[in-house]
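Course assignment 3, question 2. Fill in each field.
Student: A.L.
Task: Predict the tertiary structure for the chain below.
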Amino acid sequence: GATGGRMDHMLGNIHLLFPCLQKGMEAYILDSQNRIYLIDKERTFNRREIWGKYISFLPLTEEVRGITLTGFKYPLHEKDIEIGTSLCISNELVGEEGAITFTDGVLIVVDKRIFLPQNWTGQNFSNWIFKTFHFSDTIGGMNECSCSGKKSTI
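Answer field:
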């Protein structure tokens, strides 16, 4: 899978989300405990729509500027973060809704489940995926992203 076993493949797969973001498409990497995606602009998070209790924000670009978090347990106001920080890891919504705004950069967002859904098996990702992307093998064993608005599995 996209997150299982090999860390180099997992990191590569996270980077493959970037071409989809550039095309304006929502793409996710899902496993039994995480939903991973990228954002390059403000976003509102609703408790009913996030996957679990914890939500983390990590910089994909060298720097993400002007981050403001409202409605979160650990709020921020116009804070810049760089690669190598753990400042925005494991945050939580305090109410039904929270928001992030920032002026520049790209963030990796990780929604972390703290439980597995009832009757979960590693085989039924298609029940949980809204929009994602396909991986296809290319020469040299690397993966290539093919963005799609269709429901599909990784």
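Instructor remarks: Helices lie at 7-15, 17-22. The chain has a mean pLDDT of 79.
Grade: pending
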